[in-house]
Design a protein that fits this description.
It is a single chain. The chain has 12 helices and 37 strands. By secondary structure, the protein is an alpha+beta fold. Helix 5 links the parallel strand 23 and strand 24. It is globular, with a radius of gyration of 27 Å. Residues 1-24 have low confidence and may be disordered. The structure holds alpha-D-galactopyranose. Alpha-D-galactopyranose (GLA) binds at residues 317, 347-348, 360, 395, 463, 465, 510, 512-513, 529, 532.
């Protein structure tokens, strides 16, 4: 009875407060150099988001802000929109009311962390809202920690990492979705009253259909260089959900977090639940600036070895598939040397004896070398790589099992599969149950045993080709709802152990291409394989999509034989815009092309610091016609490189007239640059010409043409 009265009173007091000036008890300002998030404690003790926008010079002015919407909306109260938190309690009360208790601000790497503790005045739940502000990069992270201080267990039904609200006449959402081999396609829509959700339920290869990031333009659709835009992404290697809800008063709420689908989570007395980090930046100068904010932040603070170098490589997957033996691989290791790349990477197909991995139907789970393919084991290959002066990398897919394997025969209880049902397979395989600590040990040991036996393995490509299918865990017998979440936590435990024992071991995050593309995984993986599609035309779109959030440094891009109507140069130039690798053999190339590729590797090595660590400017969008151009500018603005492409018109389209010039960006306007075409097909360079930065950023350069599938690379050097 007492509770109902309280709730009603709160309901009556909330609505008039929304438009009023806050008579604040407490105001908490989370600031970067350009952005401020202002949270205010209302007279009713509850926390409201009063502002998210441009930082205002005089912090005292924030006191004049209207109170805004509740900062972490809870279920069961008087606001009828999608809640961030919904707790079910043992006594049957499904509501939560949160009031401000305390807050603290501490310094952390790159910025400041603000923690605001909220508590229910009737029940003993506590929610800590965490915000980290990275001042220079203008990036913020937000997550929550929910603690059960009741004597009985509670059940979390909804548990968002973050809730942000906006008030603008128009909202435009850009999402990035697709499918295998056509990942991260951008589509934009205006949001009107109601709810739009972007989520995934795939579990492991969670991002197969949709990437865990989005852009919200406020007022009008943002362009590369203009408009106010929020770019957000969730650091969670599993099911995620973004909810965008426009309410009756025109407010937009953006909720981000783990997808609560089939994931009600029980918390025993004293237990806490930490939600994943929602990472976001707000730009008032368009999408380009937002991307550069995230790229800088990622390299400095998030990605494993974010400031370190990356190895170019030769992979054998597309040139051999499963059909190789020791001799063939030794030849390829020699070819890696000849190409001038840093590493040879042996892909799928090297393991299994009872069920040799001669195709994707068997052998996954049995991580010993197939004796008749590799009679002298991996050791013979690492030895050869050493002799040739290249590093050796190895493909594994340790979370998975083929039903045709010794592992499945021995440990069916380790496999995620439903009782009393016929199994169905995705790529002929099933997922191991990483919620089970014994399975975590097993997966850790796959890496540990290989590294112990062959310390010269310098790199792993860690694949994950199946979503979770047949969802049921023997280990979680009474908590099936926990499996999606505990799986990801189990994966992180394994990756933590690997990182602790092998802190300098680089690994490529691969999930059939694009299936795992999130910033939490990148804490463990310095790079990721964003798509199996290496057709350079498609890849221009795919890399354009991922570059919205991820720097070139983490995007592996390989030259293959996909789309042979594109020249070797065109294919290489597209791959040079990421972390360059090759996945072909020398016989796929003419002598001229081979000479070109070797030259390109040298150019890439010289320009790597600019491409991987510089500022990226997307100049001409492939979405706007049959051309694309991107440039990278070194942090000191001394060096820059522009990649320009004429793209074959897609089916049914006429070749569109290119814009006259490509207008460059990011240069020093007052400096003079020597501009030269490099990386020509015949290995020559063009004549050097000089222009001011101002000219290049106003008039630009004529880099596009009516030619089909033609590319140009231009290097700029400040005089
Ligand atoms: C996935 C990866 C490929 C390759 C194969 C091997 O599809 O994305 O690069 O490693 O698996 O089976």
């Amino acid at each position: 009875m007492k509770l109902i009265t309280k709730t009603l009173l709160a309901a009556l007091s909330l609505l008039p407060l929304m438009g009023n000036t806050a008579s604040a008890k407490e105001q908490i300002v989370v600031e970067t150099e350009n952005t401020a998030l202002v949270l205010t404690v209302g007279d009713n003790g509850r926390l409201y988001q009063s502002y998210l926008g441009k930082r205002i010079a005089n912090a005292g002015d924030y006191a004049s802000l209207p109170l805004g919407l509740e900062a972490y909306l809870t279920h069961g109260m008087e606001d009828y929109y999608e809640p961030a938190l919904h707790i079910n309690r043992a006594d049957g009360n499904p509501s939560t009311l949160l009031t401000y208790k305390s807050h603290s601000v501490t310094a952390c790497k790159g910025g400041k962390e603000t923690v605001i503790v909220l508590a229910d005045p009737v029940y003993a739940d506590e929610v800590a809202l965490h915000f980290v502000a990275f001042e220079k990069e203008n990036v913020l992270k937000a997550w929550s920690v929910i603690t059960n201080k009741e004597n009985k267990p509670i059940e979390l039904e909804k548990f968002a990492s973050s809730l942000l609200s906006f008030h603008s006449p128009h909202y435009y959402l850009t999402q990035y979705n697709g499918n295998w081999a056509s990942e991260a396609n951008a589509t934009t829509q205006e949001l009107h009253f109601g709810k739009k959700e972007i989520d995934t339920k795939l579990g492991t290869r969670a991002n197969l259909f949709v990437s865990p990031f989005f852009q919200i333009s406020l007022g009008a659709p943002a362009t590369e260089n203009s408009g106010e835009v929020l770019v957000g992404t969730l650091g969670w290697t599993g099911n995620f959900r973004f909810t965008f809800e426009v309410d009756n008063a025109g407010y937009l709420r953006v909720l981000s977090g783990i997808n609560p689908y089939f994931s009600r989570y029980r918390l025993a007395k004293g237990e806490s639940f930490t939600t994943p980090e929602f990472i976001f930046t707000l730009s008032r100068n368009g999408k380009g600036e937002a991307s550069r904010n995230l790229h800088d932040w990622a390299r400095r603070y998030q990605v494993k070895d974010g400031m370190g170098d990356r190895m170019t490589l030769l992979n054998n997957w597309e040139s051999t598939y499963f059909d190789f033996n020791e001799d063939k691989l030794i030849t390829l290791i020699g070819e890696a040397k000849e190409f001038g790349v840093d590493m040879f990477l042996l892909d799928d197909g090297w393991f299994g004896n009872k069920y040799p991995r001669h195709g994707d139907t068997q052998g996954l789970g049995d991580w010993t070398e197939t004796a008749n393919k590799l009679p002298n084991g991996i050791g013979r290959l690492t030895e050869e790589a050493k002799k040739q002066g290249v590093k050796f990398g190895l493909w594994i897919e340790p979370e998975m099992v083929n039903p045709k394997s010794e592992l499945y025969e021995k440990h069916k209880d380790w496999v995620i599969t439903l009782p009393n049902r016929e199994e169905y397979y995705f790529r002929n395989q099933l997922v191991l149950d990483l919620s089970n600590p014994k399975v975590q040990d097993y997966v850790f040991n796959v890496v540990d045993e290989l590294k112990t036996k062959y310390p010269d393995i310098a790199f792993f490509k860690w694949d994950c080709n199946s979503p979770i299918t047949n969802i049921y865990s023997v280990y979680e017998r009474n908590n099936q709802n926990h499996l999606y979440i505990d799986y990801v936590r189990g994966l992180y435990k394994v990756l933590d152990r690997i990182a602790a024992k092998y802190p300098n071991l680089p690994m490529m995050l691969c999930a059939g291409g694009g299936g795992r593309t999130d910033y939490e995984a990148l804490k463990y993986f310095p790079e990721m394989w964003v798509s199996d599609d290496t057709d350079p035309v498609e890849r221009i779109f795919i890399q354009w999509g991922y570059s919205q959030v991820f720097p070139a440094k983490v995007q592996c891009a390989h030259v293959t034989t996909w789309n042979k109507s594109a020249s070797a140069k065109f294919r290489v130039n597209v791959a040079m815009m990421g972390k360059l690798g090759f996945d072909l053999n020398l016989h796929d190339l003419s002598a001229k092309d081979l000479a070109y590729c070797k030259q390109a590797v040298k150019n890439y090595n010289r320009l790597k610091p600019v491409i991987l660590d510089g500022d990226q400017y997307r100049l001409v969008s492939p979405y706007e016609g049959d051309h694309a151009a991107t440039m990278y500018v070194g942090k000191d603005k001394r060096k820059a490189v522009v990649f320009a492409f004429d793209i074959f018109p897609r089916y049914g389209r006429e070749f569109e007239k290119p814009q006259h010039n490509v207008i460059l960006n990011g240069l020093d306007a007052n400096a003079t640059y020597e501009v030269r075409e490099i990386d020509r097909e015949d290995c020559t360079v063009g004549e050097a010409k000089s222009y001011s930065g101002d000219y290049l950023m106003t008039v630009g350069l004529p880099l596009l043409s009516y030619n089909r599938l033609r590319s140009k690379v231009v290097e700029l050097t400040r005089k």
